[in-house]
Each structure stands twice: as C-alpha cells, then as structure tokens.
Amino acid sequence: MSETNTLSEFRSKFQVEELLVLQMGAWTWSVRPSQPTLGAGILSLNRYALHLSDVTPEEMGDLGKLISKLEKSIKSTFNHNIMNYLMLMMADHHVHYHVIPRYDGVRQFAGLDWVDNGWPALPVMSDSQHKNQPDVLSSIQKALISSI
To answer: In degrees rounded to 5, what are phi and psi of residue 67?
Structure first.
C-alpha cells in the first residue's frame, strides 16, 4: 500500500476534514468520531510518517503550539481534570495521537451526561458515548472552535 493511500484512509476513517477543529503548521486537530470521553480528539501529522522519529524538529515545534491551543480550548469548554495523549498506531499506521480529556465526575454537554468510565485509571477507549445522537460530534466541534 502506498503512503498516499495510507494517509488518505487514515484521514477518511477519522473524518479529519469533516470534524476539523484546528490546523496549525504540520498538524491537524479534529474531533474523534468515537468519544470515550467528552471532547476526545485526534492530533495527526498532515504528511505521511510511519515512525515518530520521522517527524522533524520543526514539525514537533508546530505540535507544541497546537497542543497549547487544544488544552486551553478543552479546559475552557469542558473543564477536564487532566489530558491523556495516546500514540498506539497498531491499526492505523500513521503518526497521530488520540487526545483523551479525563474527568473525575459527570459533565453535561448538549443535554447529555458524559462519564469517564476509566477514571482514575486507563481510559476506556472502546467507549463511544452518545454515538446515536446525530449532531453531537458537530456540537463538540463547534464548541471547541468557538473557544479557540
């Protein structure tokens, strides 16, 4: 499989364009299609890379700038307690992080209760809260964009 196909499949699977929150330099932050916790996201490199060691120092600098905006936005919008960044890449062979805000209690958003079922241990990545609510992902996206 070519690098272009791999990157294209990744971006399609995670609906990067549709759920875009912010693109800065070499990285994109998007809402994660499956929400294990409220405001979960994906940070992905805009070009294909298989290994973290393939990321340039300049690209890492861009990542730091984007993370600063991301954390402030999620804190002001959903008031998370701590942030987890997971780089697993077992199924999706492209440099990216799963951004998982962590909460010590229930949060309300879009008229729904959101629970961090793994708190205070590992996040429950298989959770997909409120997946049957048609506009919930776009509501999260809009709330985050408006807080940047």
So the answer is: -60, -40
